[in-house]
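#random but structural
TW: two for the price of one
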Amino acid sequence: MEFTAKQIAELIGGRIEGNENAAVHTFAKIEEGQPGAISFLSNPKYTHFLYQTTSTIVLVNDDLQLEHEVKPTLIRVKNAYEAVAKLLQLYESMKPKKTGIDPLASVSAKATVGKDVYIGAFAVVGDGAVIGDGCQIYPHTVIGDGVKMGAKCLIYPNVTIYQGCQLGNNVTIHAGSVIGADGFGFAPNQEGYDKIPQIGIVIIEDDVEIGANTCIDRSTMGQTVIRKGVKLDNLIQVAHNCEIGENTVMSAQVGMAGSTKIGAWCMVGGQAGFSGHIHVADKTFVGAQCGVIGDTKGNGEQLIGSPAMDPKVYFKGMAILRRLPDMYKELGALRKELEELKAKQ
């Protein structure tokens, strides 16, 4: 499908510089541009590619100042990154969606399946499960007994959703993820450990996206909750009875111990870890590999390091750490000098 610069500008509220009839049919990174493609420029580090790219159209920010002439047609927008995201969403929505139940799927007669649903080969839908309208369930996925799934959910291959868990509308879960496995609960005894039954569920609200091979454990009692609009990357561990607030985002390999509560609109970098039974306030920024072991203050607090601390304190500490070898040598020299002085007395 082909679109002109004029059509694209009208869709995203942009201003054209160049040929309004320039047409594109695909996307390309600006450094890998090609005729017939639309690219975007939002990071100043890539500005030099604007003067080299062969893409037909490039989305740029309103405030970009050109240093030389450019070959592509430009569409100026307030935020080029947001604009290309909108276009990619439109492009994705226009792809044909599969419908129908594959004859090799196993769907319980006691399950309720909505309209325009796709269930792929070797997928399993258990007793009492409810699948909302327009859901897409790809091959080898298991939807357990009593699972309730809202409309327009997208469940990629090899996902397992354990019994009783609940999904809202427009939830995306990528391949290999496990929703509702038992929380890690064991009570020590003289001979080993007694397993503590995990009888709660996982609730995932609307518009959540969960990356590949992420695990969200069911609660011991009550609910593990992923609130509306949360975005989780690949390989994340969410333990039992945790809660992640609305529109919080997490990068890969984050780990949360049991009963951690993370507020709304937080940003969490890769490999960050959270101790159990703590509360992270709304709008907290947690840096990569950060170790959060206590409650946070909120009000846009930024944390880095392990244990987590204010960035200013962290960098002061690191500056001292780099000087430790020299300080150690100086201390040794001073000790030797002191001993020599004592010997002369």
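TW: number two ↓
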Amino acid sequence: MSALVEIKNLTKSYRKGGWFAKAQDKTILRKVTISLREHEILGLVGESGCGKTTLAKVILGLEPYQSGSVQVLKQELNKLNKAQFQYLRRDMQVVFQDPYSSLDPRMTVKQILSEPWDIHGLHKDKTIREEKLKELMQAVGLDPAHLHRYPHEFSGGQRQRIAIARALALAPKILVADEPVSALDVSVQAQILNLLKEISRQRGLSVLFISHDFGVARFLCDRIAVMYQGKIVECGPAEKLLKNPQHPYTEALLSAVPLPDPNLQKNREPVPTKYDLSLAESLCPYAARCHYYNVQVCEQPSALTETKEKGHQCACTRLPFQNDKSRYAV
């Protein structure tokens, strides 16, 4: 299966300070290597501030990057001129987290859905455009009769459906969904997740799905990548990763997910809460919080390495772990 997005050794920094303080570079993404395959839903999971949204912005071309390679549909983003990049934008779209702020309150639904076509000069014939608008509304479960309404006349779930319809307007190959259900009620979340899954299957979309919730990622994603401090620390098929996590950080995340069976919950180790400041600058970003830390082993560069499970990779110098870690499964 070919990769639509191929990222190798990506590094992204922001310049902070200036004026009265000395300017410094803060590294957000650290040698990220990951791929998004054709017709795949890839989940990107990690705590707030770890760099998930920054990675999404780099893929969409909204943020420049300092080093490494980012290929989208076999085109290196840093080498594209303005015209080439505008054409590429048709093949990659985004659904933002907050449906309330992602839609212009002064535009009707018809204007919101038509705007991508106006920008790219598509479907200029009025009759064809009206048919396409009806198809988009029906595809996301909305009544075409509501095309002349404004965003404030819809609920949060309906607004997110409109945002998804806008993303589908140009028939993209890649969809980036940045926590699209986190601002919605639980019952509405299920509807949107089912919609995304159905649309991905019907239209052959490749989806990068960013989330905090392992339950959501398990339901929707084919593979899951776990990010910590701008680095991918574990990646693999969703079920394998959740049933037998290998990286200590993935263990900690899964340990924080409560289980309904008290006996299973009792067998788990508690979520580590220590933080050793003396290890903050270690080569392993998780060393300061890791209860497996060994000074003789862990002071070496750690890259994603295949575990005993095919397709399951982990960035830890203590690989391969000998113990089965299914007690952390969710």
